[in-house]
Amino acid sequence: MDEAKQKPGPSDTATDQPYNFMHHRSPAAISPPTQSRTAMYQSSPSPQGQPFSPQGQNVPSPLSPQPSTPTGPDPVHDLPEELLQMGWRKFWSKRERRPYYYNKRTNESMWDIPPLSSPGFVQNDPLGINTVNREQQDIRLSRNSLDIGQKRRLSEDHAMGPPAKKPSSGVQIPIVPSQYWDFAINTNALFMERKPINVLPPQPEIEYERSNICNRLRISYAELCKSREGLDAPKESFNRWLLERKVIDKGNDPLLPSDCSPVVSPSMYREIISDIPVKLYRPKYASEARKQLFRYSEAAKKRIDSRNVSSESRKLVKWNVEDTFSWLRSQQQASVEEYQERLGHLKEQCGPHLTDAAKHSVESICKKMNQMSRDAAKKISEKHWEILREHGITDVPYYRDPQHRKVPCYAVQLAVPSPRLPRVDYTVEGELTCLKYKDQVCKVNSAHFQKLEQLYKLHCLDDPRFDNFLGRAWCLLKRYQTMFGLRTNEGSGLQGALPIPVFQVLNRHFGVTFECFASPLNCYFKQYCSAFNDVDSYFGSRGPVLDFYPVSGSFEANPPFGEELMEAMVDHFESLLDKSTDPLSFIVFIPEWRDPPTPALVRMEASRFKRKQCLIPALEHEYRSGTQHTCSSHELYYRAVHGTLAFFLQNDAGFEKWGPTPDRVKALLDAFIPVGNEVGQNSGHRESGGHNNSTGNHTKSSSSSSDVSAVSR
Ligand code: SAH
């Protein structure tokens, strides 16, 4: 290994004290009088670049980088999580010069990777819910967290990262049960083995930069809308732009769109155009409706006068506006409906001309955003590589293609190794844990901070001593904070989660063990897909769902309500269902928007894989807040203002195994009923407290006109 690769990371020079991860369990013991303390990293660098071998040799493995590369998972634990949990470990035979597998529980040994049909494996579980004796596991999980011996055993059972034989160098994180997630549930999702992906590992300095740039982009977007169209940027449209662009982006930045074709984003274009000439809303009172009609007319006239349009268009718009003004003069006491009808008529007449007049300029806003984002991503990538090179990492290690075989799905592995991250300060303020890098503090509920610790312990392969934990947790929190946006509550609608009882029923009755849309902050299961490969991978993410190709398993999908992403999701699920003959099932929850219907809704209603659909009516169910990791418990649930449609998309084997029988569907619908509330009443709240009356999960007006439909194939 060359000298540069052995250079210690920046934090190696800091005062080294071990980080006490028991802090949140005994606050009094860990909080010095100042209520602030700094987490330090352990003194010696972690053994990056030295795959651990029980025989003391460096060994090649199909999933490890080649020996010349600076890092790699240790081969003992270089196995899918479920095999590790069954007791399988991978070793190197010196004599045969090939790997072999040994089961520490049953004393079996094998030359080939143990078959997936080994006793106890999820495939033998008729509901696909679990392989472990849940009762036994629950008892163990509920043991006192101070039982060190017990904790160690739990860590070994669940962890992929720390070598079981060196507990003293690993951090002890008990996997404790929570009412908000269930990490005892193992996955029944199988996919074809995949190799590490070429994505750069997170760096606080880069995340800091990316966040500043993204915030500036948001401001530029608002300014462009104002200066060119005289509009406030449509609410959340920047966030939906990010979502939509990611469906087609071929660039390398995890957040910022950088290689998209077409460059004009359909969602950004659509949302700006729909606010031209003014933003419309649903009025409650006649006076509001009258005012809105007047405003629209004025704005339409002004706009058509100031734009370069054909005289024909100008004449038509002006005539319609004048007609509306005289109607308004003659109708002083019209009803909301009458004003709205008149507005609809005016829109129909003027809309196409106003759109024509604005088309060029709105497209130029979209193009400008695309260009700025692309330039920013390039700058960020250059800086990222600069930092990596300073640590002796100069290129992407080579990985052989893995064998073509089905394995239980495991978290994304990054091909490029991660250097030691710089120092991140840690403090506790009441219920909040605060992580600070430079001048930027990320706050998270201490319960969710513990959740991150547990996910890291369960999934992270390259950091058994948690040397990089705080740095990575800060990057993750910063990424989501940046993704949410700058205003209070912004972005949280795109992160709203299903209630806990719904997940419980999905698991117990439909064998669901996996969320297709999640984050480390809102996941219920420990296996899930999420928006970001890089920051989320250490916390168990299987990556963005459109890049995830399961061949079997039972999945829940509650996508962020962005039209393009939802439609791409349907394409993806249908293609997966089409290709697999193993049991495969997706239970998808989307809003019931029928005015006009979203492409995803239309597609699923007509899907040949649809076994059933059912409606959970508007205002009769709740979502969990997208800010569940920062909000207080009384803000946790909010009432859905739109109906939610559940679709059961299953192939034949999936239908046979997890089909929507009447009993199961009833259990699911019951689970949506807010606790302490009967269907139809609007007063429910959960044990966690009341709900707020937030207008909507996903910032779009809803229509809840359709019947509860239960269409079976
Ligand atoms: N897991 C919860 C909450 C879902 S909210 C549930 O299933 O009820 C939707 C989540 O999808 C958000 O956390 C969002 O960040 C995530 N997401 C966005 N784009 C994604 C993608 N391409 N793949 C997977 N998840 C994505």
TrEMBL record:
Q: Which Gene3D superfamilies match?
A: 1.20.1270.10, 2.20.70.10
UniProt feature, compositional bias: Low complexity: 42-61, 701-713
Q: Sorted alphabetically, which CDD domains does this protein's record hold?
A: WW
Q: Where is the composition biased (Pro residues)?
A: 62-73
Locate the compositionally biased regions of type Polar residues: 32-41, 690-700
Name the residue ranges with Basic and acidic residues bias: 149-159
State the InterPro entries in the record. Answer: HSP70_C_sf, PCIF1-like, PCIF1_WW, WW_dom, WW_dom_sf
| WW domain location | 82-116
User: Could you tell me what this protein is called?
Assistant: Phosphorylated CTD-interacting factor 1
- Say which species the protein is native to: Saccoglossus kowalevskii
Organism lineage string: Eukaryota, Metazoa, Hemichordata, Enteropneusta, Harrimaniidae
